[in-house]
Fold this sequence. Notes:
It contains 21 helices and 14 strands.
Amino acid sequence: xxxxxxxxxxxxxxxxxxxxxxxxxxxxxxxxxxxxxxxxxxxxxxxxxxxxxxxxxxxxxxxxxxxxxxxxxxxxxxxxxxxxxxxxxxxxxxxxxxxxxxxxxxxxxxxxxxxxxxxxxxxxxxxxxxxxxxxxxxxxxxxxxxxxxxxxxxxxxxxxxxxxxxxxxxxxxxxxxxxxxxxxxxxxxxxxxxxxxxxxxxxxxxxxxxxxxxxxxxxxxxxxxxxxxxxxxxxxxxxxxxxxxxxxxxxxxxxxxxxxxxxxxxxxxxxxxxxxxxxxxxxxxxxxxxxxxxxxxxxxxxxxxxxxxxxxxxxxxxxxxxxxxxxxxxxxxxxxxxxxxxxxxxxxxxxxxxxxxxxxxxxxxxxxxxxxxxxxxxxxxxxxxxxxxxxxxxxxxxxxxxxxxxxxxxxxxxxxxxxxxxxxxxxxxxxxxxxxxxxxxxxxxxxxxxxxxxxxxxxxxxxxxxxxxxxxxxxxxxxxxxxxxxxxxxxxxxxxxxxxxxxxxxxxxxxxxxxxxxxxxxxxxxxxxxxxxxxxxxxxxxxxxxxxxxxxxxxxxxxxxxxxxxxxxxxxxxxxxx
Length: 578
Ligand code: FES
């Protein structure tokens, strides 16, 4: 790897030397207690201390291989002359946490930042993968401004059922709809349950985890090609060892995130998300990550980039293939090589080369999975930002995953006041719903839900499924899983719970969605809306203490990244002195 100091260029002093090198009582304590653990001077004196922030947990189904990978990363650190220290941090496993891991993304980000700041750490390997762990760790490491390299968990292997390939989330939703429509028996449903999660690793569709892993690669904070290597391949073990080695080099050169992450890096990452037709959740995370670097990314930035970037990856939920296919087809670097003229090729990476140099050798091996530009899956605009009187601060729709027949649609609203209300009534035989109805969910936003859960792909009512209909227009201030699909308008801001116009919608109001015009309008006259607004009452605060109170008081809206307002900006706090 390049990026190491030349022989004539002495390395900067190690940060950990402030703990270990002094001849004072405090440093004596640091050294003697490490010796009490069985280490001696040769282990940690004058060696870079490289931390592994490990989000392993028995309750995180996607990180079950992280104990093994941690040992492999440590092997690389030792080979390169570093001192590995493994530090567990809170794990955010999507499958077992309620109401949503998004409630805790900022908690992990804060923990990562503070753990890095207060310990004798020279550089860090961030071990994440399951959705929120990726942005949270990166946000924290940027704020701590310590050299870091991100190690993605990698996607699980493709699943098989009968003669079909199954993708995480996407095919669960699809077959659940068939079950609700009476087309799948209990035995078949159990068979799918038994086989859809085939190995360790993250969801193997282009869901949030894979989107964020590829974004990390495009940002230049992973080793080359790290974004798509399946979790259980030997390549993934080798990636772990190489990541450990590189982290030692980063400690030596002291390449810090604020030294190389630029607006151009984040533009590259946005292009990556859009050409992958990646998860809409990544929009929120990208705004938050950039914010930690003091870089402002707006929904308008997304929209203007979306207008010129084609969708080239044919991956579920909007396409056909899975992450294993994507990796075998050449991975992200091969895809980005198709878009060189749109990228900032000079953006720096943790690998000591520019992004342009990093992706240059990659070639597309299967151009069904990674399309040429003249055979794009979607010419431009795979994800749009919409505005209108229903979403003055914006909302998003994944156009490429929505039924084109619904891209322009006007229909009467059917309003659910909350998720509980929706669960109670959605399959009521008396529900006044037709295929033209626009399903509206209120109280699904960052503060109202709370935590901005993935409720945005509202289920199609059973009686509509039985008509053979599989998509309807759905609008909410919630998010949806990156593995989801359908005509779902998401992230409506400001959210209903804090007085946003979505909270003023009533049953029967006409709503007009026009994707090409990028508008979302509530067709109710201004006087009526003003009347409803005057009657709206701000809810009483629901949380009097603890993390939920902090979250409710300081989380920003979706268009601002849902970070805590007091964590924006790129002025790292003072290093601990004593
Ligand atoms: Fe962990 Fe999907 S549940 S990545």
